């Protein structure tokens, strides 16, 4: 059992017993992550059956860490059991922060400020740490070369175009793939390419970015990673924000090396396209082939990004079949059905068992009601009585107790069964309610926490309602 193996590894490293081990929600990879806590130590445990990928991550991590980059420290490893322990950076990704900013309608400058910090760090990976990196650990290839590019383009062809039932002339499309990759390889491809540099792989700790998931890194073009960051589908950056950040990247890049800005940009948009196509291949594989519908939610964003580029950028190569096929993606009936599908509406309510209970306004007669009264009650302390579960003091109080974290983890696992099923079957409404004694602290915290986790996992913006009124008769 994986948990037992990780427990043994943790106790050998930490020299203390495991108090709690919680499996984290699955992501887009086949790796499994566990948050492990002892009396004084905590870390993430990772299980991944791909031994070469594990070795690449561990070797790269140690190299980057020694270079002073913001990557997790590797605490312990057991390559024979496919497990290792790394530093835990918490739960807030750059993607989470973007969703919070959008929800609160925060000034757009906050987005650009965070991204500028990320870009500054990206260049350290690409150039500073690249010079003496041992590329022999790269997997599956040492370089993002022609074969690697053709793998990505065929991934898109077989798992997106074919499964989305989009017609194309395969022979001519293959010829266009050859021309397109030859064009991309005209630029410098001798720097470190992170490969999956996007908002879900960037953690924020006290507004400082930290980085994960570079095990697919290899030599490649500088343009690829900045393209990955700025055209990350669900991050959905505004066009003018992308322009500001690309100019910032180019300005910072010139502190390291001499470049021709216009020439750099001419290849940049080609790398944007190949990155988007690689991502769309993944959306098709996960969504169409593995039948995980929430991966399909990124497709409209990706198509919008492609259309913007194809409508405004010209390339010095004749690849009419490739670009014509891409420009017609949104005409596919299967794609239109995805774009037009009504998103699942999730209503999350906090309430007091002693006062008003939530009402099912949609008439489904289903959903969930979770009783939070077994959790530690901040309301028993005088200093907390005027606060709510949205206040940081209350959040810190609750999250300091492992019972609360365990409760939230179990709730997410239970509701995920229904969310996945409802999305697959096209249901439109799901109600999730949390009750406690006063409806002010524990239930409010749980409602807000679960809403954030649903948004992170499914990109669904939940409707939140707190039934108990505060002392000014405004909603909590």
**DSSP strand tally:** 13
The level-1 CATH class of the largest domain: Alpha Beta
Oligomer: single chain
Widest sheet: strand ordering: 1-2-3-5-4
Backbone CA Rg: 24 Å
**Helical segment count:** 15
Q: What string, H for helix and E for strand, traces the elements in order?
A: HEEEHEEHHHHEEEEHHHHHHEEHHEHE
Percent strand = 5-15%
**Helix-residue proportion:** 40-55%
Shape: globular
What is the number of domains? 3
- CATH superfamily grouping of the largest domain: Aminoglycoside phosphotransferase (APH), C-terminal lobe
Under the CATH scheme, which architecture of the largest domain would be assigned? Alpha-Beta Complex
Q: What are the segments in which pLDDT stays under 50 over at least 5 consecutive residues?
A: 470-476
> Largest sheet, if any?
5 strands, antiparallel
Mean pLDDT: 91
Structural class: alpha/beta
End-to-end gap: 44 Å
């Amino acid at each position: 059992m994986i948990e037992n193996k990780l427990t043994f590894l943790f106790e050998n490293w930490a020299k203390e017993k495991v108090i709690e081990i919680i499996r984290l929600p699955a992501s887009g990879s086949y790796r499994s992550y566990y948050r492990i806590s002892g009396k004084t130590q905590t870390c993430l445990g990772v299980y991944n059956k791909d031994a070469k990928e594990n070795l690449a991550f561990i070797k790269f991590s140690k190299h980057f860490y020694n270079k002073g980059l913001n990557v997790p420290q590797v605490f312990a490893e057991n390559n024979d059991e496919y497990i290792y322990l790394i530093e835990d950076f918490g739960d807030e990704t750059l993607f989470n922060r973007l969703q919070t900013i959008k929800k609160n309608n925060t000034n757009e400058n906050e987005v650009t400020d965070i991204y500028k910090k990320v870009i500054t760090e990206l260049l350290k990976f690409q150039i500073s740490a690249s010079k003496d990196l041992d590329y022999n650990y790269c997997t599956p290839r040492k370089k993002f070369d022609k074969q690697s590019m053709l793998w990505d383009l065929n991934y898109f062809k077989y798992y997106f175009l074919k499964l989305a039932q989009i017609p194309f002339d395969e022979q001519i499309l293959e010829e266009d793939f050859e021309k397109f990759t030859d064009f991309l390889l005209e630029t410098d491809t001798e720097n470190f390419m992170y490969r999956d540099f996007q908002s879900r792989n960037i953690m924020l700790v006290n507004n400082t970015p930290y980085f994960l998931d570079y095990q697919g890194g290899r030599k490649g073009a500088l343009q690829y990673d900045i393209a990955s960051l700025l055209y990350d589908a669900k991050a959905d950056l505004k066009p003018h924000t992308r322009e500001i950040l690309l100019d910032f990247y180019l300005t910072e890049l010139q502190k390291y090396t001499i470049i021709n800005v216009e020439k750099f940009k001419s290849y940049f948009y080609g790398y944007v396209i190949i990155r988007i196509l690689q991502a769309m291949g993944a959306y098709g594989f996960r969504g169409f082939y593995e039948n995980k519908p929430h991966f399909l939610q990124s497709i409209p964003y990706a198509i919008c990004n492609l259309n913007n580029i194809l409508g405004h950028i010209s390339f010095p190569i004749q690849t009419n079949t490739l670009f014509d096929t891409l420009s017609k993606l949104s005409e596919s009936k299967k794609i239109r059905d995805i774009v037009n599908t009504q998103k699942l509406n999730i209503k999350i309510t906090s309430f007091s068992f002693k006062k008003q209970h939530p009402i099912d306004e949609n008439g489904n007669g289903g959903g969930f009601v979770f009783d939070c009264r077994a959790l530690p009650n901040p309301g028993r302390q005088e200093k907390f009585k005027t606060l709510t579960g949205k206040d940081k003091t209350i959040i810190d109080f609750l999250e300091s107790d492992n019972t609360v974290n365990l409760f939230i983890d179990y709730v997410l696992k239970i509701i995920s069964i229904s969310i996945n099923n409802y999305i697959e079957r096209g249901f439109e409404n799901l109600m999730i309610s949390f009750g406690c004694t006063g409806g002010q602290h524990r239930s409010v915290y749980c409602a807000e926490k679960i809403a954030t986790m649903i948004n992170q996992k499914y990109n669904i913006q939940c409707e939140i309602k707190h039934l108990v009124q505060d002392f000014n008769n405004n909603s909590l």
